[in-house]
Amino acid sequence: MGRAPCCDKARVKRGPWSPEEDEQLRSYVRRHGIGGNWIALPQKAGLNRCGKSCRLRWLNYLRPDIKHGGYTEQEDQLILSLYSSIGSRWSIIASKLPGRTDNDVKNYWNTKLKKKAAAAAVVGATGGAFAAPATPPALSPASSSVTSSSGDARFAAYPPQPQAQQHQGLIRFDAPRSTELAPVPPVAQLGGAAWASSSAAAGGAVAALDDDVFLPDLVGGGAVEQLFPYGDFYAGLQDRALELSACYFPNMAEMWGAAASDAKPQGLCNTLT
DNA sequence: AACGATCCCAACCGCTTGTTA
DNA sequence: ATAACAAGCGGTTGGGATCGT
């Protein structure tokens, strides 16, 4: 049995918002705020819309601080870099771009940046010089960190997980530069995605791994080799963990769980959410 | 001018996560 | 402990705009 719909679809308006509805929602939020309850908001605001739809309209379009279009080269580079580091975590990526929404960044990626990255990959694979930044430009102090909690603010052009599902259980370590690394596999083995050849073309893969590494899992789990091409490097990770300077967990629960089981390395740890 | 192809983005859908009773 | 609910999130889609022939 599925969950009940958030509202009666037969009785609420759907589809594009009219300017009148926009103004109704905008003026209501201006006067009362969102009140922490989107479900109740449409009725209070006199809108014949689903609360979920109101939330989306406000967050993605009506909020006063939103920028539309006109992405700068710096923003492009930051998105490319973050995507290569954390994959399609659009809300996290958008949070590093002031005035951008997750939906906007996602659309921008799907319609433009993905092609740009692919084109750059072709150039890179043929000896071109697309340079993925080992450390992307910091647009503002608020945009300097992958984490939403405290912590280290380094990025890396590193192989992302092939599938979104594989971000589940993602754990990232920032390895010290002295850490000895396994040889970086040829680009062809990394799945052919833009990040691989682009970072490799720029010599970025090695440098990046020297700095930051995500792991699909901290300990055990035979799938690591499938998901992560540098599995050898992390053989016996429990021992090596002490060499690592910082780590990132998908959420607090997993971080504390790792800490409780001694899987968490000494040093700074953060969550991605 | 007409038509089809492609691009772009707002909006929807459904799943996951967090909170509360 | 668990069920119900709301919010958050990422994937997908619909349809208008634009481009190419």
Description of the structure:
The chain is built from eleven helices and four strands. By secondary structure, it is mostly helical. It has two domains: 19-62; 68-273, no CATH class. It has a four-stranded mixed sheet with strand order 2-1-3-4. Helix 11 (252-260) links the parallel strand 3 and strand 4 (268-271). Helix 6 (102-125) crosses helix 7 (194-201). It is elongated and about 55 Å long. The protein starts with 18 loop residues before the first helix and ends with a strand. The structure holds a DNA duplex (21 and 21 nucleotides). Residues 9-66, 72-117 form the HTH myb-type domain. Residues 134-161 are annotated as: Disordered. It holds the Pfam family Myb_DNA-binding.
Strand-helix topology:
Layout: H1 19-32, H2 41-45, H3 51-62, H4 73-86, H5 90-95, H6 102-125, E1 171-174, H7 194-201, H8 204-209, E2 212-215, H9 224-227, H10 237-240, E3 246-249, H11 252-260, E4 268-271
Helix pairs in contact: 6-7
The chain binds a DNA duplex (21 and 21 nucleotides) through helix 3 and helix 6.
Biased composition (Low complexity): 140-151
Region (Disordered): 134-161
Pfam family, one: Myb_DNA-binding
